[in-house]
Design goal:
single chain; 242 residues; alpha/beta; seven-stranded mixed β-sheet; 13% strand
Length: 242
């Protein structure tokens, strides 16, 4: 597959990617179900099915050389990202977290040659963020002050035009006061940047349409329907130190 430029992340684009990668997605979903079953004692999956699959699909479509993951917890998102890089046949994941549970949980065959884990506070390890990051995945502390920090310090360090996902934004119809999601959504509005969410609470019609498409494509549930509170958007051009 040829490398492609990222398009506007909206329902139509996501539909196209589901149809294009349906076979690979079914195989990854099966592997992830088996992985989750085998890890029940040490891991609780955090991403719901739609947001995990959309992450995989955007990675397959854009084929980034480097991915940055901020927040790993037990490794569910990490294994989805690494599965996409494996299936692309290229790319390296740089994961950042203050805890290292993920190191014990990620299968060696996924990690080998395509994964670097950086332990510590991102405020102290920021210099290790790859300059060529081609996808930014954020699922760390969910308070407003941390969101303001990464908007000011992390976002200007990565290239414009790359896909970005931020988890736990829309568990409800609106964002919560003093929460990361409120800060990020307000910032996106100020930057005039649209976002897409498969959230059941925020975007019920899109949520239902995507689940209907999954059924049509014969994709079996992995965790189950879930809230799918993640948002996806394209990084705008920002001045350094913005």
């Amino acid at each position: 597959m040829e490398d492609r430029q990222l398009r506007l992340i909206d329902l139509g684009y996501i539909f196209e990617l589901y149809k294009e990668f349906a076979g690979e997605l079914a195989a990854v979903g099966k592997a992830q179900r088996e992985y989750a079953d085998s890890m029940k004692a040490t891991m609780t999956p955090q991403l719901d099915d739609l947001e995990a699959e959309i992450t995989y699909l955007l990675l397959r479509a854009t084929r980034p050389a480097s991915v940055m993951e901020l927040g790993t917890f037990h490794g569910w998102s990490t294994t989805w990202i690494l599965s996409a890089l494996r299936d692309n046949g290229t790319g390296h994941l740089h994961s950042f977290d203050i805890i290292d549970n993920v190191v014990r949980n990620v299968p060696a065959d996924l990690a080998e040659g395509r994964w670097t884990f950086v332990k510590g506070d991102i405020k102290e390890t920021l210099a290790r963020v790859p300059a060529d990051t081609g996808y930014l995945f954020v699922d760390a502390a969910h308070n407003g002050s941390f969101a303001r920090w990464y908007l000011d310090n992390l976002f200007p360090r990565v290239p414009a035009g790359i896909p970005v996902s931020v988890h736990d934004v829309f568990h409800f119809r609106t964002t919560l006061p003093m929460h990361e999601g409120k800060v990020v959504v307000r910032w996106l509005g100020e930057q005039d940047v649209p976002f897409f969410t498969p959230s059941r609470a925020r975007s019920r019609a899109d949520y239902k349409a995507l689940n209907a498409l999954r059924d049509e494509l014969g994709l079996a549930p992995i965790r189950g329907a879930g809230d799918n509170p993640m948002i996806f958007f394209t990084m705008p051009s920002l001045p350094a130190g913005a």
